[in-house]
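USER: Write out one fold?

ASSISTANT:
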Amino acid sequence: MKALHTLAAAAALAGAVLVAPLASAHAVLKSSAPQAGAVLAAAPRDITLTFNEKIEEAFSSITVTRGDGGAVTTGKAKPDSANPAVMHVEVPALTAGDYSVKWAVAGHDGHRRTGEFKFTVK
């Protein structure tokens, strides 16, 4: 009976060790430029998002909207050629006001993650 308990405990531990990396394999936003909640004296030329892992370009996007909900971005978000965990999207000249950045990315595991943050241009 003790051998059965030992075997069951070993199997549970092995399962937990194998599943743990998969559970944490989703792309997570590490930083952004501009930062969430930033109040900027000058408008940014682009939005840059840095994730904890390589982003799949075909399944990823960045959208910038004005405070009233009107779309700002016109181009497609692209990964940085030197670091595929970094995505950029160029923005046209932004006027003073509030802006929202919405992002959706897929990491190497294929799971899609989304997020949003705001910034202000004075």
